[in-house]
Specification:
By secondary structure, this protein is an alpha/beta fold. It is built from 19 helices and twelve strands. The protein has helices spanning 24-36, 47-51, 73-83, 98-106, 119-148, 160-172, 189-200, 216-224, 241-244, 260-272, 298-303, 309-315, 332-347, 356-364, 370-383, 394-400, 403-421, 426-433, 437-446; strands at residues 15-20, 39-44, 61-65, 89-93, 111-114, 179-182, 206-210, 249-253, 274-275, 284-285, 289-294, 318-321. The protein has a five-stranded parallel β-sheet with strand order 2-1-3-4-5, sandwiched between helices. Strands 7-8-11-6-12 form a five-stranded parallel β-sheet. A hairpin with an 8-residue loop joins strand 9 and strand 10.
Length: 451
């Protein structure tokens, strides 16, 4: 056994790869190429020790030569598929071994690379395989989380913006402080509120109330409750949302829609943590955390006299701002993968395939309805009625292009988009894309893109 990287574990979240190649010079050159592409490589000269590293929890990819001493690359492929059918295995074949490459693909290989190969070709395939593995592992994590807490919607995304949201949820979760959640329509304000409730450890219920959906005439009764006979039709006592959420969390969505008169009453309740039901005189102590959400700028509304400034400062002691989908485009592929799968289960259908070009288009598309619009699109895609679904003739266009051509087209588009988002800064674009700056310069030159 000659295992040149011993740990096999990722470092600082880097991409992982297990390489099996019996020729020392080729093994070292391939290891270097993968490491320059950002991979943490475990290199082996035989398949047997590599197989021992493969588990269902392995979050990386496998690159293996076909012809090896002892267990062959195809035998390793079969064993890897038996461990996890979703584990991407890239098979390296000798020049002219077309039949062997076809056998590998039929046996479940992710892709193949023919010797001698350029480093860029290997990295292109490895990057795509690694992204696929990341999506698979993240979806598994989400499914496991859902199985443990089926009532808790997942917070999906690995972009810096979403990592910041997670950090705030973690730090604010157990704090006995009311929180104002700001965000555009469809950014997931209720999802974050439910995550905050789960992180709080409170044993009471999570109670959601959409202020924008309530007629003004029933606001008082819904939030504060009423006594029997308080008004015509009030035949019995009713517990309001604040009281019902005792020991738990009350989520007031679209709080900007709350009538000004009731804002005064809510402010007093939040300050004293006591309330009186409509038509009653008894002062009732409440123990609930209040989370409010707004899609409007409450500061501007306060300046116009449309929202009470004192209430804003009371609920906005701590604010949590949610990014729009346009601010976290890197998460779109992961979100769509999750929503496609959820829709397929819900509607008992297979997920229709999509192309790399389509995913690139979706990542660059404007989604004014944010995550909610993306989820609705995923439903329509699975049902076969999405407006962005490819026409029947589209596969003919795809077939006219070779796989390397399609990969080049996709990569050029992603690089061009990253450069636009980075205002032409190659350093920032390289950081966004997760590749070395020199590699990006080479690709800019290759695709003749303006820097």
């Amino acid at each position: 056994m000659n295992q040149e990287t011993n740990s096999g574990k990722s470092v600082n979240g880097s991409k992982r790869a297990i390489l099996i190649e019996d020729e020392q010079s080729v093994r070292r050159a391939t290891t270097q190429a993968l490491e320059l592409g950002g991979f943490d490589v475990t290199a082996c000269e035989r398949a047997e020790p590599a197989l021992a590293l493969l588990t269902r929890d392995f979050d990386g990819i496998v690159v293996t030569d076909v012809r090896l001493p002892g267990m062959s690359g195809l035998e390793l492929l079969a064993a890897a598929v038996a461990v996890d059918p979703d584990l991407p295995v890239i098979v390296v074949t000798g020049h002219g071994d077309v039949g062997m490459a076809v056998d590998a693909m039929r046996s479940g290989a992710y892709d193949f690379v023919e010797k001698p190969f350029a480093s860029d070709r290997l990295l292109e395939v490895a990057e795509r395989a690694s992204e696929k593995r990341r999506l698979v592992m993240e979806n598994r994590r989400l499914r496991e989380a859902w199985a443990s807490h089926p009532e808790l919607p997942p917070l999906i995304g690995q972009s810096p913006a979403m990592e910041r949201v997670r950090e705030l949820i973690h730090s604010l979760g157990a704090a006995e402080v009311d929180v104002l959640i700001n965000g555009q329509t469809g950014t997931g304000k209720e999802v974050v509120a439910r995550q905050l409730h789960a992180a709080s450890g409170r044993r009471g219920p999570f109670v959601a109330l959409n202020c924008g959906a309530l007629p003004e005439s029933v606001f008082d009764s819904e939030i504060f409750g009423h006594e029997a006979g308080a008004f015509t039709g009030a035949q019995k006592r009713r517990i309001g949302k604040l009281e019902y959420a005792n020991g738990g969390t009350l989520f007031l969505d679209e709080i900007e829609s709350m009538p000004l008169a009731l804002q005064v009453k809510l402010l007093r309740v939040l300050q004293e943590r006591r309330l009186e039901r409509l038509g009653g005189n008894e002062s009732i102590a409440i123990d609930c955390r209040v989370l409010a959400a707004s899609k409007a700028d409450l500061v501007q509304m306060s300046a116009r006299g449309e929202f009470r400034e004192d209430l804003y400062y009371r609920i906005g002691v701590v604010s949590l701002d949610l990014p729009s989908l346009a601010q976290r485009r890197d998460d779109i592929a992961l979100l769509l993968a999750h929503f496609f799968q959820a829709a397929a289960v819900r509607y008992r259908r297979e997920v229709p395939p999509w192309t790399a070009a389509q995913m690139q288009q979706w990542q660059q598309r404007e989604w004014p309805g944010n995550v909610r619009e993306l989820r609705n699109f995923a439903d329509r895609w699975v049902l076969g009625v999405a407006e962005a679904a490819a026409p029947a003739s589209a596969p003919l266009v795809a077939e006219a292009m070779s796989l390397p051509q399609q990969v080049d087209e996709f990569e050029a588009g992603m690089i061009a988009f990253a450069l636009r988002e980075s205002d032409g800064s190659v350093a920032l674009a390289a950081q966004r894309l997760g590749i070395p700056r020199k590699t990006l310069y080479d690709k800019i030159k290759k695709y003749q893109l303006a820097e």
